[in-house]
Amino acid sequence: MKPIWKWILGVFLVIVVALSGAIWYFSNNWKPILEQKLSEVVNNATDSLYTLTYDALELNLAIGNVTLKNAALKPDSGVYAKLEMLKEAPDNLYQISLKELKIKRFSILDILTNRKLTIKSIRLESPTVYLTNTYHSYNDTLSNKTKKTLYESFKDVLHAINVSDIALDNVEFKYRKVQEGKSADFAVKDIQIKVRDVLIDETSLADTSRFYYTKMVEVLVPGFTYNFADGFYMAKFDALKINTQDQNVLLTDVYYQPVMDRSAYFKKRGANVTMTQLHFDTLRMEKLDFKALIDNQHTLAEKVQIKNGYVKLFGDKRYPKTPRLQIGEAPHQKLLRAKKRIELDRIFVENIDVIYGEMSGKYGKEGEITFNKASGVLTNVTNNKASLAKNKYLKADLRAAVMNSGQLHAKFSFDMTSENGAYTYSGDLKPMQARLFNKVLTPLLNVEVASGNIKSVKFNMEGTDYRTWGDFRFDYNDLKINLLNEEGERKSKKFLSFLVNQLVINDSNPDANEKYHIGKVNHKRVPEHTFFKNLWQSLLDGIKQTAGISQEREDRLVGTAQKAKKTLEETQGKVKKTKGFFNRVFKKQKEEEGE
Question: Which residues pair with 273 in a beta bridge?
Fold first, then answer.
């Protein structure tokens, strides 16, 4: 009798040969079946809009691996044309190709016994996604047609699909937007995508812990630059990170800026259109509702963080500016008119420099005012009527260093349900030197502050689209100004400077008679003034009143100068210049209304 181990070995070899033969047989005979089922699933899932092609399909049932070589998912132009005729075509059309798709460790036993496909991992190598977005107005209305879910597309073949990990390496994404015959394109390369725990069954779509059947999608987009179609601006960032499980989006080193220098920008515009430059080291959204964003383009998040950067605005008065009605155009009113829902619980601003600069049309010099290291929080930033029914106020609490010196604290409250744009704002400014404002006064108005100590500024205002009213308090002392000639020298206008300082402006508040002046602002808005310009004009009314500037004092100055013209040959001309100075510096209300 042969040793028992030989019998065992012989039986084992027979089993191995039999299994190998069976695996070989099924691998070769299952291949056409698998190819047929793949085609059926794609057709069912896309209503025959897409077809799947590939050069080769490799199947190994022994270890549960499938490989597709040079696979492509392409739209059928004929089917799409028919859908457009029926007004059922989707706005988005995809064309996807990849070098290789590898499916590892799927269980054939589960497929045969439970009709469940379980896969350990799927890897897509060098995929290219070409998305074309063509606007169809009929997609803006709700459709009564029930869309088939992904599960419904394969439920006749399988009861469930479960994939542990999906990796997409070096994705190239191309996007084209077509609207009214015009198109805009951009492309991003080297995108990395990871997907965890994909479950597609009868109930998984309703699972609130999942995002479109997945437990987690993580996306990393490297440096990206986009030039806007208008030819003036570009946007770029260093990296974009998305995590659907944490519901976070992080953008780093974000820029929005012109593609040309300042001179070329205004020359090409041919008009005084504000040039904008933005830069933020960090732009983060937390607890973002990705499903609402993708399904309906709604932006819903608990927290937004804007950190470390600047907002630079620049105008050039050497170019014409066409007046435009600004009633109803305040930022909060534009938010209300946004077509898509926006709901941001809190926006945190940290360490942002806000700089407004302007080129003088008369003197050809640049002036600027700065609000450095601005920080604060905006709350209830929303246009959602249901949320506004519970809390109708959008609020902002902000702090900054004016001219990098005086500490400003301002609070805004916007009534988002008001038909006339009602709002309030209040604040205070801590001590600073008035001469710091020469950076904006001298280039733009040809005047300088020779001395002045700002002790404090406090204001409490209310406003609508048409008027602003409230109290303004301005405590200061030792205020002196110099009027400059066309070359910026002060000596030729000493007489006028003397008249202004002695007859028009109080050098302190309380004044020399110990009278404390309070500004009682009641400012009528010029309809062509922007929200922020109207804000400044309202505060300027308060400044004029607290500094003792009145029509009576201006008239007195003119009368004094006229009496002196007999002994000073140039007095009459200087009186005219003096009146021009007041019209320029204090911007009389009657001239504003005539602009």
Answer: none
Please, are residues 131 and 194 in contact by the beta-carbon 8 Å criterion? no
- 224 and 189 Cβ atoms separated by less than 8 Å: no
Cα-to-chain-centroid distance, residue 462 = 28
Residue 432 contacts residue 411 (beta carbons within 8 Å): no
316 against 548, higher pLDDT: 316
Output the CA–CA distances (angstroms, integers) from residue 553 to 179, 227, 228, 500, in the order listed.
60, 54, 53, 9
pLDDT digits (tens, 9 = 90+) for 169-181: 899 988 888 776 6
Prediction pTM value: 0.82
The separation between CA 243 and the C-alpha centre of its own chain, rounded to angstroms, equals 19
DSSP-derived secondary structure for 461-487: EEE-SSEEEEEEEEEEEEEEEEE--TT
φ and ψ at residue 369, rounded to 5 degrees: -120, 140
Query: Peptide bond preceding 510: is omega within 30 degrees of 0, i.e. cis?
Result: yes
The span from the first CA to the last CA of the chain, in angstroms, equals 119
Pick from 288, 258, 286: nearest CA to 273: 258
Alpha carbon dihedral 506, 510, 515, 518, in 10-degree steps, equals: 90
Closest residue by Cα to residue 380 from 320, 306, 301, 305: 301
497 has a pLDDT exceeding 90: no
- Provide the β-strand partners of residue 105: none
Contact (Cβ atoms closer than 8 angstroms) between residue 245 and residue 219: no
Specify the pairing of strand 299-316 against strand 342-359. parallel
Q: Place 48 in a pLDDT band, splitting at 50, 70 and 90.
A: confident
CA distance 45 to 148: 8
Q: Are 162 and 118 a contacting pair, CB within 8 Å?
A: yes
- Residue 114: the pLDDT is 81
φ and ψ of 473, to 5 deg: -120, 130
Q: Give 3-state DSSP helix, strand, coil % of the chain, rounded to 5.
A: 30, 45, 25
Residue 240's identity, in one-letter code, is L
Contact 166, 122 (CB under 8 A): yes
Q: How many beta carbons lie within 10 A of that of residue 251, not counting itself? A: 19
Best CA proximity match to 375, nearest among 348, 402, 356, 408: 348
Question: Per-residue pLDDT tens for 66-89?
Answer: 888 998 888 988 888 888 888 888
Sorted by sequence, the CB contacts under 8 Å of residue 111 that are 6+ apart come out as: 117, 158
Distance in angstroms (rounded) separating the CA atoms of residues 223 and 74: 28
By CB atoms closer than 10 A (0-12, 13-18, 19+), residue 552 is exposed
Residues in CB range of 217: below 8 A, 6 or more apart:
193, 194, 195, 196, 211, 242, 243, 244, 245
CA 91 to chain centre: 24
Bond preceding residue 431 cis, omega within 30 of 0: no
Q: Give the model's pLDDT for residue 487.
A: 60
Strand 116-125 relative to strand 160-179: parallel, antiparallel, unpaired? parallel
Rounded-to-integer distance, Cα 168 and Cα 214, Å: 15
User: Which of 216-225, 376-385, 469-478, 497-506 shows the lowest mean pLDDT across its residues?
Assistant: 497-506
Please name every residue paired with 518 in a beta bridge, in sequence order, or none if there are none: 473
Dist. CA 431–CA 405, nearest whole Å: 8
State the Cα–Cα distance between residues 413 and 389, nearest whole angstrom: 16
